[in-house]
Amino acid sequence: MSSIDIKISETDLAKLRNKIALLKKESTTKLKSNLGSTAADIVEIAATNAPKKNGDLMRSIGFEAKGNSAEIFATAMYAPYQEFGTGTKVDVTDAKKLGIPPSEIKRLYKGSGKRKVNINPQPFFFPAVRIGLFKMLKKIEQDLKSITK
Questions:
Q1: Which of 13-22, 28-37, 50-59, 72-81 has the lowest mean pLDDT?
Q2: Whole-number Cα distances in Å, 90 to 45, 58, 59, 76
């Protein structure tokens, strides 16, 4: 599986938050459109890059857009273990780059310690989120330029 490594920095995340707030003031229709298309893009990228042993993980990835928000999800119970790995192989770098505290992820997905299973991480979800947010930032900047002309 090939991977694309696009980073979105804290500065870009802050810029995206500000641009979303500005676009919300200028045009809620464009904001809703951006959220929906970004969520669909993230789902497509994540599904394309998800490990494909039997396709269940890929099929479990989806989104729901409501008003000025969108929720992107992977419902397969094992999705976080594929994303972050297990045991000594856990890697939460991608989530950390999006401002999610590593301690929160480790708390949620820490095993009971009965077995030592070390699965390598196969990030598919959070890299897709970073790519999608980066594209959304660029699209919102274009929209704001066209609105404020």
A1: 13-22
A2: 22, 21, 24, 18
Q: Which residues make beta-bridge pairs with 72? A: 63
Please determine, for residue 6, whether its predicted confidence score (pLDDT) is greater than 60.
no
The angle, 0 to 180 degrees and rounded to 10, between the axes of the packed helices 125-147 and 10-26 is 40
**Sign of the CA dihedral 31, 33, 39, 45?**
negative
How far is the C-alpha of 33 from the C-alpha of 143, rounded, in Å? 11
State which H helix or E strand residue 74 sits in.
strand 69-74
Average pLDDT, the chain: 83
Under a CB-based contact definition with an 8 Å cutoff, are residues 100 and 129 in contact? no
pTM: 0.78
The size of the chain, in residues, is 149
So what's the pLDDT on residue 57?
A: 96
Spatial distance between the Cα atoms of 46 and 94, rounded to a whole number of angstroms = 13
The answer to whether 9 touches 46, Cβ cutoff 8 Å, is: no
Concatenated DSSP letters for 16-48?
HHHHHHHHHHH-HHHHHHHHHHHHHHHHHHHHH
